Structure formats: structure tokens, C-alpha cells
């Protein structure tokens, strides 16, 4: 304990004298008690991280000095709300107003000390917990107010591998559009989405976009095996990839009023150097329905072209009922596409329930999972071969991870019949092995 005590002493002054256990008010406006710093776990744990905000908060928490520093010990060791937010919101009437949590739950704005999930996040002492709490801020009314849902920090691992996009920046978009439903995306949402172009093998004419995919680094697109093998039974040849698209009918896309427009860069059309369906792809069951496309050249990243993260090998899926997101233009082998990029939220479904729904139509293997079954909201808003995604709360922004590849279903958006997706974490090793070998 001695080295820790010495470490803690350097942050405090010794000229203040107050009786231990006296009432006090923390910098976060909590009623608390003035106790020895080494007895206040939330402050000591925060200090040991070396974070500058934690050190500043600890100094502001000092309420006396007996034989050692005394601190006003509340439920948190970091400021939950920044000073400029306090000033901006001090007169707001947000208490008990509707709000949306960082996990996109509909909730209410309540005092922080009444919200167990935010308190638990703060008391964890880690950066993700503190970041979650700060993103939960929704006002100030004598005490900090937070948007209080039922779910705390969502811990989702990202595959950190030299051949993949940087794990700290993959899956981050510039869009501020945080509403998920069956609707158009913002112009710069989901910048990793790709459209796969096909050519008719008989006359060499352009057959348009029939599938989707996702950019996972500067050179590779992840898609479904059936999108790569489509030419064998439909007289089509996979010929190119488009990145950075939003509205298919225009070149450079713009949104907003004249003078205040936000415009994208023109989409990028790239030839394909090689494509690789999984060698054990089963055309009957759609098991192992995953494949890789190597582009003719590297692409440069921008706000409209950016890679998504993938999960580590054998990473766990979220709990049943968790909302996931599909996005795209509805591109399939047989149907017309939407002109504008779409998105929809779909719940994860238990594989056992999914198998019962399909009966003889299809067995769901450990390499697959099901999501959706909500009428009008399914992979209709995504592309065959495109991603189904979930997000985590990163250090500075929401970060998206591709959990699956859109594989098959009974009918687009049919109530009570979920879509079936290839589980990416089962193939993470295969992906990086083949990125370096083919």
C-alpha cells in the first residue's frame, strides 16, 4: 500500500484541515462524505489510470487533510458532465424528458444517482465506462441528468490484424444521423458499403448491380459466395465494384438547401483482380456463404469510402433480441434496387426458433444466424452479400462491426420469417489467411 499512498499524495495539498466523515458535495454535485483518499475506490482507481481529467477531478474533490488527503467520495471518479455543458443546460427543463441512449434505446432523462447502468459504467473505472456515461448526458438540474436505459456499455471485440483496417478507426462514419428505421440513410452513412456490378456473358452488356459487399481494407471487399458464383447459373460475370455511392441515379450526390448543401465525392468504380468464394460453400443449404474480392488497386479513404471492422475469430454474438442494422440498395439477383441507400434495424433471433420457422426449407448451422422477421423490415433494405452490423461505443465515436453477410431468406420483409446471415466471426481467420494468399 505504501507505494500507492505515495503516488496519491503527490496530487493533493496539505494545508487544508477538515474532520473526517464530514458532509460534503462532490464536483458532480453529489451529497457525500469527506473520507481518506485510499478509502475512496472510485477516486483511487481513476487516479491510477493517469488520466488528466481524473487528476483534475481528484484535486477538486479534496475536502481536507488529516494524516492523509481527504476527498469528497461520491459514486464517480470523473466529471460526468463538462463545464460548458453545465452552462448550456443549467436552465433547461430536461428532467424526465424522452431521450435516446448511446445504445439507441428510448429512455428518460433522470438524475445520474437514479440510473444504475450509468453508475455501474462510471464505477468500472475504465475509459469505455466513462465515455458511455458522458455520452449519456442529457442535461443538468441541480445534479447531472443522464439518459437512462436498461443496457450499459456494450463490449464488442474488433479483430486487430495487420491485414485489416486499423481497429481504432475502422467502422467510424462522419454521419450524425442516429435514427434507425426502414428509411433512407444520410449521405455519408455506412461508407463501407459496396455494390457489385455484373456483365452478361453472351453479349457483354452491363447487367447492373446484383449484389452488395463491404470494404474491409484498402484492397478487399467481403461479400457472399453466392454473389461470386452467380455467373454459373445466370449467364452473368462479376465485373466490378462501386464504392462511395448514395443515390444511384446521379453522379455526385448532394443534400440540403442551396448554399448549405452537403455533397459527396463522385462514386468510385473499380475493376476486380480476383474473387474467391469459400471452397466449402454449399449451394443447397447456403452454408459457408462468404467470399472475398480483391480489387484491381488500392482505394483512398474519405468520408464516403471507409472500411468496416470485423469481429475476432469465434467472437460471440450479442444477446437474442439485440437490434442489428442492415443497409444498402436492396440489390439481389432477381429484384429491382432502391435508388437511394436504405437502412433498417432488425432484431437477432435465436437459431432454434429460426430453424423451426423454416422447417424443411433450411437448417441453420453454427456458421449462420438469423435476424429480422419484422414485416417490411429485413434485408429488403440491405443487399444480398452486404453486411449486417452492430455498433460499439468507441473512445470518440460509435464504431460499427460487421457480424454477418446477408445470405438468404424466404421472402423480403415477410412477417415472422427472419433472414439468414453468414456469421463473420467463424471466418475471420479464413479471411485474413486468404487476403495474403490469393
Automatic annotation (TrEMBL):
Q: Which CDD domains match?
A: Tryp_SPc
Q: Does the keyword Secreted apply?
A: yes
What GO cellular component is one of the record's annotations?
Answer: extracellular region
Q: Which SMART domains match?
A: CLIP, Tryp_SPc
Record-linked InterPro entries: CLIP, CLIP_sf, Peptidase_S1_PA, Peptidase_S1_PA_chymotrypsin, Peptidase_S1A, Ser/Thr_Proteases_Immune/Dev, Trypsin_dom, TRYPSIN_HIS
Domain Peptidase S1 residues, every copy: 179-436
Per UniProt, the keywords (alphabetical) are: Disulfide bond, Hydrolase, Protease, Secreted, Serine protease, Signal
Clip domain ranges (all copies)? 23-73, 98-148
Enumerate the Pfam families for this protein. Answer: CLIP (PF12032), Trypsin (PF00089)
N-terminal signal peptide:
1-18
Q: Can you say where in the cell this protein is located?
A: Secreted
EC number(s) for this protein?
3.4.21.-
Named from the GO MF annotations, one term is:
serine-type endopeptidase activity
Q: Which family does it belong to?
A: Belongs to the peptidase S1 family. CLIP subfamily.
What name does this protein carry?
A: CLIP domain-containing serine protease
Species per Swiss-Prot/TrEMBL record: Pyrocoelia pectoralis
The organism's taxonomic lineage, starting at the top: Eukaryota, Metazoa, Ecdysozoa, Arthropoda, Hexapoda
